[in-house]
Structure formats: structure tokens, C-alpha cells
């Protein structure tokens, strides 16, 4: 390992066998953390070739269990987001593309930071079971075309260990390490093809389009090298996605989007990601035809019915899809108003995300129990005009103390300008 660290430190390329040796040794514990840290730092400075990155991805993808989706007919297309505030896209896209005949066998995570992950959000449906046996999971997808469950088994232990190490050694921000980490998990989860939603902006991991493009290209290239067709959509995360931030609030917005009444940005992103999935899944050859088909599924009610079907199949209260009073409700409500008239120049996604954590919608440690009812619903988006005193956002809370701590953070998120403001595009690029 000392020789391999020196090799990467000096800017040379590893062979496939060397990468397999490193990943196997680290997973099994024969390579200690201090050597792996030094190697990760060498990669941070020297980078990796596309071939090395693909080798690292495959070595991590095969370091533990792999999900065999071969009993499900058709091309299995997975979707992944690099994460952002108010990102409920999976809740829209999974039932939507399933209604179009693309099988969705999705394993999701719980969130750390801002609001919960997809699993937490789904638990806003009373009774929803995220833990399913492998056979129940596969059978549900074969029968109704869609399932979203928690990760079970020992998937990508190498990534789990390396990601935790990178987190405490200032080596997270290395493109080949991020790209291989994300792609290894998708490959181990059985995806034949992958659509990545790479977020760009103040509330995202990647702050500039150039950085996001570098990460997206690295992941698309890994997909090419390992035979999993991959497309990356670069989407905006300067302001929260949609209006709602917080678990049950986001689920309601996702349901509205599936009914055709969603916010413009979320609808656009869901249709963009969804049509890419239809094309990768071989259902359509043209993106605009795919998009039109998805729009029809929304208009006919079939998309939202598919969500209800999935919720029911996993033991959840599917009636909530048609009756929002069945979702957890917050007991306190506070309106944030404009201190002066003007155009909304900024709604800082980081502030809103942090405020939602303060309210109890997200978790700071794995052990935190989250409050599904609380969060923030924006009434304005960047570029909108607000009169003095007009409501900018509504804060939903269950404890006065938490509401009082979160309120200044929501207020701080808003910047108002006297001159008109142009909002960032919803989608920057598709790679
Ligand atoms: N997300 C991941 O899964 N891995 C990384 O390395 C960074 C973000």
C-alpha cells in the first residue's frame, strides 16, 4: 500500500489489479484508515483517469451484496439526485414513469441535514412500510411496476467505509471519488441505466455549473465504461425546489404535481428526468414524445393513481393522496412577510434547509427522530414581486421554541431588490 500511495502521489496511473487490491484491502481491514486517508488525499490532488475511476466504481459496487433485478422484465432505469432543499422529485418521477411502463425498483435513503430523505417523506403516509424482504420488493415491482424501499443487506460496504473516512479527512470534494461513490451504489442496486439529477447552486454540493458539469461528465463516463447508459441533468439549487420544504408538506406538493397542479420548476424537472428515463428504458425513442406521454398520464390521473397503488401495496394510507387532511398536521403556523416592496432576488436554499432542520424536519445525527408535519412553504419564488407586508413564506411548527429559533433563518433567506430580477434557469444542461 505504501508503494501505491507513492505511485498516486507522484501522479501515475493505477492498474485495475491495484485498485481492486486497495478496495478489497480497505474493506477487509488489512489496509488501515491512515493509509487509505493518504491515498484519498493523493487522489484529491492527482485525480484519476476515466479507466481508473470506472475500476474504482466496479470494485466498490461488488464489495458487498448486489441486487439482482433480472426477474423483473424490461430495462430497469434508476434515478439519483445529488440532493437539495425541497427535492421531492423521486416521489413524482417514480410513479410517473411506472405508469408509463418503466419498472422502478428503487432503494432510497433517509436524509441527514435539511429535510428528510425520500423514505422519511414516504412515511408521512401512515403505515407506509419501508422495510421489505428482497422477494416482497421484487414481487411488488413485477405486479404494480414500482416500489420504493429502504436499503437492505450489505450494499457497497467499501463506499460506506471510504465515504465516512473522506468526511473526516477533507477528501470528500474529489470528483473521481464522488462520482465512483454515487455510481457504485446505483450499480449495486441493479440499475441497467441511470438518470442523474446533478444540483447546481448555493444549496448544492456543486456551486457552479462548471463544477457540476465536471462531476456529471465523470459519472456519465463511468456509466459508459461499465455498460450502464447514463444521462445527467444539471438543475438549479440556488433556491429550494418547488414551494414546500419538510416531509409531509413535500409529499403533498409531489401529489399535486402528479395531479398536474405542481410548481413550474418541479414539474419541469420531473418531466425532463422522466422523459430521459422513458428513452433509456426503451419505451420511446424521442424525448418530446416521451414528455407528451408523461403529460397525458398526469392529465388522465393515472400517474397519481400509481402513487396511491404503491402506497397501498406498502401498507400505507393511500387515501391521503386524495385527502390531505390525513397527513400529519403542524399545530403552529407563522407567516413571514416582506419588510419592503420589491422583487425577490434570492431565497437562499441553505437558510431554508437549515430552518427546516431547526423546526425538526431534518436530522443532524442518525438517531434524531424527525417531525413529519413541520417545515416551510414558500409563497414566492425568485423573480416574483411582493408588496410590503405580503406573505413570503409560511412556517409550520409543533413547538413554539423551535418556531422562534427557525424564524430568523427563514427571514434571512429572502433578499428583496427594487429592480426586476431574472431567476436562474430550472435546467442548465443535459449531459
Ligand atoms: N454522495 C455520495 O453518495 N458520495 C459522495 O462521495 C458524495 C456525495
UniProtKB/TrEMBL annotation:
Catalyzes phosphorolysis of the pyrimidine nucleosides uridine, thymidine and 2'-deoxyuridine with the formation of the corresponding pyrimidine base and ribose-1-phosphate. Pfam families: Glycos_trans_3N, Glycos_transf_3, PYNP_C. The keyword Lipoprotein does not apply. This is Pyrimidine-nucleoside phosphorylase. Keywords: Glycosyltransferase, Transferase. One of its GO terms (molecular function) is 1,4-alpha-oligoglucan phosphorylase activity. Belongs to the thymidine/pyrimidine-nucleoside phosphorylase family. GO terms for biological process: pyrimidine nucleobase metabolic process; pyrimidine nucleoside metabolic process. Residues 343-417 form the Pyrimidine nucleoside phosphorylase C-terminal domain. PANTHER family: THYMIDINE PHOSPHORYLASE. Its cofactor is K(+). It comes from the Bacteria. The keyword Glycosyltransferase applies.
